[in-house]
Amino acid sequence: MWPDFSYILHSLIGTQPDNAFSVIKTFGFFLGIAFIASASLLYLELKRKEAQNLITGMVETVVVYKPIDWQDILTQSFINFVIFYKIGYIVSHFEPFKMDPAAIIFSTKGNFTTGLVLFLITAIYLFYKMSGETDKKIKTAEVFIHPHQRLTNITIVAAVYGLIGSKLFSVLENWKSFVKDPIGEFFSGSGLTIYGGLILAFIMVYRYVAKRGIRPIHMMDAVAPSLMIGYCIGRMGCHFSGDGDWGIINELSKPNWFIFPDSWWANSYAHNVLNEGVAIPTCQWRYCSELYPKVFPTPLYEIILAGIITIILWLLRTKLHRAGLLFFVYCFLNGFERFFIEFIRVNPRYSIIGFDLSMAQFIALGLMLTGIGGFIFYWKKNIPA
Questions:
Q1: Measured between alpha carbons, how far is 247 from 363 in angstroms, rounded to an integer?
Q2: In 3-state terms, what secondary structure has residue 20?
Q3: In the Cβ-directed half-sphere of 241, how many Cα atoms lie within 13 Å?
Q4: Closest CA to 313 of 216, 228, 197
Q5: Of 120, 169, 208, 234, whose CB neighbour count within 10 A is largest?
């Protein structure tokens, strides 16, 4: 496994791990790639639906000129203070920062001097700029904004609320750990529950597009393939970093029909980012643990399944001519895949009306039922897509 980029470079060119590249965490890297890939597919779909007149933009009043005022000066100066308050501390404490960036970023630690210097520089510069402005009136203009031009805002809304939702659901799944250390657990870089992120991000993006004149049902169809490719790449981050989303112990002999590598059947997740398991003999690096016995590499299975589902959705997007159908196919396939993979995953179980299932399985069941019900409902509504 590669907990951070220094381990990736060690595998590629043989450099020593735990160097300056440790600041780039593997999971975070793949998370960023997931957002880029999702946004790219969504952009293509929004453009296609705009060309077919299925979705359209709206005229908005935008500010094209605004003179700087004292509120702007203080706000921007404070933002730069916070940024350089952290940067100053990071520069002088780079070793602990590269080991655990989140612990530094989400703490109160910082360098007051560097923060204050940038606060003053920013305030003086903006005051000088303000004093040279002759026009003191706010100027606005009427602008027609296309749906694809909102992609950046949609991505930001999805990213912010996706991360918040992921963390909130992770807290619910690991309540005992949260109670022991609420601040540390909530602001740690680990522990992100994908379904939690999907649910909250969906709600907030739905509200955002509905307020801006984009028909949500067409947006739901447009976003289905991008959600799945994001899920696929996100699971790559889980697998390659070894973040704990692995399966149950697998001591079964690899069957003859399983033609793939041994590590695809049972994996020790050596050098996992959690440092879980037993010590690796002779290893002197920071991440020197591996699981014993080995476990099912469930993130790898989900990468494959999510990739297949992405291809299916991408092919179906021009074949299903009724709005809403593609999104509810996504709901069913996503729930179906996750429900069955959970039987070999390590997750807390909850007993509800006689069923001992994980929280993800209950959500997956809900997704499958939603997929079936939604598909039937929108098939009957027959809205052109």
A1: 19
A2: helix
A3: 26
A4: 228
A5: 234
Residue whose token pair is 């100053």: 88
User: Kindly report the CA angle at 282 between 276 and 283, in degrees rounded to 5?
Assistant: 45
Q: What is the tens place of the pLDDT at every residue in 153-179?
A: 999 998 889 888 887 877 776 666 656
Residue showing tokens 């780039």: 24
Q: To 5 degrees, how large is the angle CA 34–CA 35–CA 41? A: 90
The token pair that represents 263 in the structure block? 């590590």
Judged by phi (left if over 0) then psi (alpha if -120 to 50, else beta), residue 244 lies in left
For residue 287, what are its two tokens? 């991440």
Q: Facing residues of 60 across strands?
A: 143
Query: Which one, of 233, 192, 196, 227, lies nearest residue 29 by Cα?
Result: 233
Surface-to-core class of residue 178, CB atoms within 10 Å of its CB (0-12 exposed, 13-18 middle, 19+ buried): middle
Q: Are 277 and 290 in contact (CB under 8 A)?
A: yes
Asked if the bond preceding 255 is cis, omega within 30° of 0, the reply is no
Residue 184 CB coordination number (10 Å): 13
Amino acid at 339: F
Say if residue 188's pLDDT is above 60. Answer: no
pLDDT digits (tens, 9 = 90+) for 97-111: 877 777 788 778 899
What does pTM read for this prediction? 0.83
Tell me how far CA of residue 342 lies from CA of 295, 304, 329, in angstroms: 13, 15, 20
Length of the chain: 385
Contacts 24+ apart (CB under 8 A), 20-25: 20/94, 20/98, 22/98, 22/99, 22/286, 23/97, 23/98, 23/101, 25/101, 25/189, 25/241, 25/273
| Residue 84 tokens, joined | 């350089």
Residue/partner pairs of 349-358 with CB below 8 Å, 24 or more apart? none
Rounded to 5 degrees, what are φ and ψ at 356?
Answer: -100, 95
* H/E run at residue 276: none
Residue 90 DSSP SS3: helix
